[in-house]
């Protein structure tokens, strides 16, 4: 149990948000959740949280408001829109957006919140569904250092790597770099898997030894079983990674950074989505390599 319980509103109880909100409850915070689908709210209530039928109800008494939704349009709708967070949150409360969106939208939210007397942090996460469930997310935070310090006890219920990376928007910039690296790692894993199988090597043994050397990575550790089993139940959907690759390529262009490998992987992610794999886990990039190799996909 933590020393100081906070009143937290959590908006967006999906694959990531649901277990994150539950971990805040476990840490001793008072958590009121709102989600478009009622089932997710009921799940939080069963875990000891409270449910709200509207954003207004969720945020009215909150000291901290956390948003965790898929993309920029949803953030703008629930934060800036009619009936949204800024319309109903208490002045002085802290808004933490943990979605993965463009740095520009984070800056827009920060400016609008400042006008309403609210403080903000952009705090996207990495670690996927498993990291959210286990409370071991990596959290990259942009905003005022004092606000970061204020939010740290909240973050500690959600993750183990918690770093203030700079001013407003910096968290999203670092997340874009994260998504670039994850996509490239997933593509290289997919290519290695097809190469090894075509060569007749014991794939499970090969991935075990690769994981213990310089080729090892969190991507390999987390996704090894998924590729062995061809189990692509979504922890993080290709649709969302496609969105993120658009963010990083646009942001890189804005600061004059070439992404020769990243641009190619972005096209492969887009191709997977076009082939109907958008609802699968991003480890399903393996299916694209199998297609290129003339193999039937699983």
UniProtKB/TrEMBL annotation:
Keyword list, A-Z: NAD, Oxidoreductase, Signal
Residues annotated as transmembrane: none
InterPro entries hit by this protein: 3-OH-isobutyrate_DH-rel_CS, 6-PGluconate_DH-like_C_sf, 6PGD_dom2, 6PGDH_NADP-bd, HIBADH-like_NADP-bd, HIBADH-related, NAD(P)-bd_dom_sf, Tartro_sem_red
Keyword RNA-binding: no
Signal sequence annotation: 1-21
Enzyme Commission number(s): 1.1.1.60
Key word NAD present: yes
Location of the 6-phosphogluconate dehydrogenase NADP-binding domain: 7-166
GO molecular function: 2-hydroxy-3-oxopropionate reductase activity
Domain 3-hydroxyisobutyrate dehydrogenase-like NAD-binding: 169-287
NCBIfam families from the UniProt entry: tartro_sem_red (TIGR01505)
UniProt record similarity statement: Belongs to the HIBADH-related family.
Name listed for the protein in its UniProt record: 2-hydroxy-3-oxopropionate reductase
Organism of derivation: Streptomyces iranensis
